[in-house]
## 1
Amino acid sequence: MSLTFTATLADRGFDVAFDLAPGETLAVLGPNGAGKSTLLGLLAGLLAPTAGRAELDGTVLFDVGPDRRTLTEPRHRGVSLLAQEALLFPHLTALENVAFGPRSRGVDRGTARATALSWLDRVGAADLAGRRPGHLSGGQAQRVAVARALAADPSLLLLDEPLSALDVTVAPALRTLLRDVLVDRSAIIVTHDPLDAFLLADRVLILDGGTVVESGATASVLTRPVTAFGAHLAGLNLVPGVRTADGFASADGWTVPLTDTAPEDMSLAHSAPENSSLAHSAPEGASLALAVRPGLVTVSRSDTTTQGTACRAAEVDDVEHRGDLVRLHAGGLAADVAPSDVVALGIVPGSRLFLAFRHEDASIYPL
Amino acid sequence: MTASSPNAARLPRWVVALAVVGSLFVILPVVAMALRVDWPQFIPLITSESATAALLLSLRTSLTATALCVLVGVPMALVLARTSFRGQRLLRSLVLLPLVLPPVVGGIALLYTFGRRGLLGGSLSALGVEIAFTTTAVVLSQAFVALPFLVLSLEGALRTVGTRYEAVGATLGAGRWTVLRRITLPLVLPALVSGAVLSFARALGEFGATLTFAGSLQGTTRTLPLEVYLQRETDPDAAVALSFILVLVAVAVVGVAHRVRPLGDLAPRAASREAARP
């Protein structure tokens, strides 16, 4: 393991443990106040835990218990932090900013400069070397900040929503850059954006209320979420239910048969077939989850139950405009429909209509 | 600023009228004094022996007092802004006391600290050090009244800048001294400069504490304000000419203190909004 981490912080209700393999990138997701920033603060040494221990490549970051209290100073941790804002030192040029890390570690001026230049070049900002942060755009500043964080040669790179303050036109280029530099690097990225998790992270940790509620490989967490928040992030409907003699049944009336061949599981990308057979082989009464994309849920005024389709009547709770689509919330499901359909069906909150999805569009797995 | 500017237009007229009265109250006396200056005799008046001695003494002591303020004021501001301890609020109030204390009272307090029969005076006498009624006493009086200006201005700047840059510096491997030297102090340098300039101005104008604690000996403790006060009795023209020098210094100080602003690029978000190119 590159990093082992166990920490509790009593006054924030924070209690998290996880490991990180060498070269692995972990995405930490969660609603506001879930403890994501606390996690980074503890690792960077900006916060002290009430109890816990973390070790990075053999260096103890902290080891706090009833009879011991080791807190390594931030500068000796080998942990660099890239925040939402670039936070470049405003009185130094881009080059001096990047050279700051090497200089602080006692590297001589010339070598530090050379290192800084090569990192600026690596992030595509070599031409900005002489500029002060005040004369950089947000995207340029964040590139320089990436170079500065990496020039310090950290054992672990922490990224705190590094793209969220950037203009949407700039974020993709920087995401590509991060993807590039994070290969084979131990990193933890806090993000709100499941796209970041998909593109940048090998594993995902979902926090809520200061504890880990879901964790696992990015693909499996984001295609087979087991919590409402995980499903929300993944943009999926999550319907909890149980294994019945015929297949899946939810408390609110959704039933989907499970067949031996389990074709219902193949439609979602990254899905691992063994999970559906796990659902299939689950004993009667076992908890199952059903995940289906809002875009694959259809609405109509009449019951459309047919072979291979699940259909149920529901009352519309909410109608939400999302760009060129309208998202309906009804009967615990979200359904994306075209605005013209909303008009044609006369849908308003309180309307009764039928929601349906094909069995093969749903992914069913044990909770 | 014209009456037709949109902001002025939104104010009630009586507010503007009172503002004009207030401004005249500040400006008129200075103008009145300038009119009273005996311009043909100006240079001889300010270059007389006693005037030159007072001017040089004032400059020397004020600069020394300013240096003293920087030396102890910067650490004080850092401790007040970057640490928290029991009694910190009380300490902050006490440090600012000279700001509101009548200078004469400050002088008496200093006398009972460093004077021959003061709290520390006895021990200092035993070491052969006499402070009261020497040039050192002038410097101490000036530093006493000027220190709050530096501490106040610097502590405010330190709080405004915040600790985020310092935290970044620490995660990049910088030790405490490196963070202080390469990040914290450069970031608050404008406030340090304007605080030092204000301290210098306050030191230059010091009268009450100096008179009480240091006396008025020509060339030793008689600074420019004391000289002005003294000349007023015997040679009003000289007093006015010397006063005018202090006015010029004050104008220069106000100019410098206003010109020095916090680094314009302390707000990276503003920069990112105006130029969103990759």
## 2
Amino acid sequence: MTTFNISLRNMKKSIRDYAIYFFTLMLGVCLFYVFNSIETQTTMLALSKDSREIVKLLVQMIGAISTFVAFVLGFLIIYASRFMLKRRAKEFALYLILGMSKRKVSAILFVETLMIGFLSLVMGLLFGVFLSQITSIFVGKLFEANMTKYSFVFSAEAFQKTGLYFALIFLVVIFFNTIEISRSKLINLMQAKRRGEMIRGLHPVIAVVGFFASIGILGYAYYLVCQNQENVTQKILTTAILLGVVGTFLFFWTLAGILVKFASSVKGIYYRGLNSFTFRQLASQANTNVIAMSVICLMFFFTICVLICSVNIKTAINGNVEKYAPADYMATTREKTYDAEKMLKLKGDIASQLEDSMSFRVYSGGFLMSMNDKDLVVDPKFQEIKKEGWFSYPIREAVDETTYNELAKYYGNKTIHLADDEYTVVSNYNFTGRYYDQILGSGQKLNLNGKKELKPGTKKHVEGEVYISSNADNIGIVVVPDGYYTDRDLEQEVIVAKYPTQSRKAREKMDQKLIRIAKKDLGAKAAYTRTKSEMADASIGLSAFAVFIALYIGCIFLISGAAILAIKELSESADNRERYRMLRKLGADERQINRALFAQIGIFFVMPLALAVIHSVPGMLFARCILSVLSGGSLVPAILITIVIFGAVYGSYFLITYYTSRRMVRE
Amino acid sequence: MEQLLRIDNIEKYYGSRSNLTKAVDNLSLSVNKGEFVAIMGASGSGKTTLLNCISTIDRVSSGHIFVGNVDITTLRGNNLNKFRREDLGFIFQDFNLLDTLTAYENIALALSIQNEKVKDMKGKILKIAVDLGIDALLHKYPYQLSGGEKQRVAAARAIITRPQLILADEPTGALDSKSARKLLRTMSDMNEKMGATILMVTHDSYTASYAGRVIFIKDGKVFHELNRGGATRKEFFGQIMDVVSLLGGELDDDI
């Protein structure tokens, strides 16, 4: 019989054993292709120029990440193939006893790896090509591009890249397998069965104390990030993360002891059916997999947060442009290039193009706000505030009351009224807004630029915009009474305009024209312009960027975690065959045995995920507070998408593991 | 005496029509309630196949096996599991204790598979443990026990469910002679004091001499039968040895 024939027969025989290996490979290939074919996927879309630039950047980024991903997948595949080797140790031992050379055995394995690799490559690419048809629709939606015409997407480049990377991975796998075979000893191969394992559980007292300590540590870490949201310093955050890691590790370290202690005290449950057996199995697994479970839990935590944040950024950002850019066009000069005459000319030129425009003056003169450990410090002279806290915001600009009210009317915001000796602050950034409320509420008096002293004219800050933007990023502009500042303090003038047309093409045309005029009138270097369409594209690009990178890394993390758990569980089941056979002899029903197996695998899979979900609640609360872009909009769609992704990938791994294990223990 | 086990002309073939091996060939025997019966035979004599058929791990090719009034060759699926669970107790050569459970939990498992009430378990287990002299070992794990201790725990597990029949497959096979003697005494106690019916398969004459009756099997057929009657164990051992030599030397694996 030729090597090829033996390999082929082995494959046929153990095709179901290979399920987990095959599935991981296929998913890896599929994802690799889909994400690397983004560039091709977008060619059929009618994208704006800015979006194209972002796609280019995205492609570069994905290329870089792909190298990392290839390493992760390579590691996973080597891990999976080592499991396969172990499982088949007896078969290899037989070959060796029959006098086959190690080289020949390696050759058999080589052909097998090649065949399974080729098969998974083909299947993965097929699924990848299919999936990329769907993702290209998704990409289109993300970039809000019109799908002018649908065409079949196939990326030769991604195809080649996937083929190349995985060929390399297979070479490494074959290399490792050969080493493994050549170093193995016949006696070890024949006695590959696990010898009666000593159960070195923790002392119950240590387990209980450690477990409650871990809960306490985790609780304190949650408390740190949630309760102190308003003044979380870098230091507190680092502490919380470290405590989280330590707590997670401690949790899984003591889990086994607690599981047995707790379960065996509830005798009604513990001694029902095969429960005592299942609990002990779980405990021994938890005991031997502390590090794996902790790391996987933290990986899932990261994945959940990143997925929810990125999907939410997309919904939040798209709404933000409408809200925070109440005009279509804005032109001004860059810092220290203000020239009154040139500005006057620009005003005239823009007025000749558009009826609906206005200009306003911005003065330099505000204050510096900083947070010490506890106190909010305000300094109108922009002097260094010594103790550095979590933030320190300079508010450099001011507008007068009449200007602000005209602008507010133009933007559709609320107008304000100030007395001669009053000031207030306009902002739309939640994070700093809170501090203005404190400053204004406490009646903090200011003498800006050494002029007469002003007292707060409102109890809270005024919610509103001065410049147009794609985000809530107005961190604060002071409003002073008319005449408080004179031309000497003038910083710049700003022109804002609204377009009469809403059609995308006409707007883009108008953008180009007005940008040209601004550059001509003010000088190419001095002119600074923003347009709503530009910002919309950029922010969509940003959100698309975030979503893609997060999905890519998230999926890879998810696959890695799930595959490692699955392989751990499968090798466990292989070792447990003897125990299940014993249960069957004792008269346990198939149903009881299946239920025990299901519970064992299910709980093993659920534990790291459950803790990760619990972690992600405070994680998301914190992220929501810090990333103001997340503050708008409900998290429900993002959470649903995350659940679907986890359900599909993790669920598949669970089912494959369960059915393969069930078959194994029946052997 | 009430008949508990009746084996009626059973046959068991292996292989295809063209190349047939008869492992059990038209064999009949019966065991009464409260008996301790040993089945002796060399390897390949069919004694393990016979035991597998009785324990429903294997199926007969023809013939019937009655336990009580039930023909167990007709049982299928869950009825089969139920029978195995409720009417049989097993003692295996390699102990077959679950190494993740303590001795107590191993014994309790046999009860909990039958959905026994938890509050009744403790009393039952403690009583059996005291009777079999393993009460000091209950909280230990199998790896902390010697072979003999393990096998006595396994015996406790086999009898705790009060099965109609206890099947023992070479129970002393993995034990040193001292532990073997202790275990066999335990099994005699189970038989005499607790009224357990035991069917034991062995190839060791010494082990067989603890039984009340010995059935010799050769080539799948009953070859001879010995009743202890009023004889002492030593005398009975002598009688067994005589039959063994008649059968052709030691009934060991290497003949």
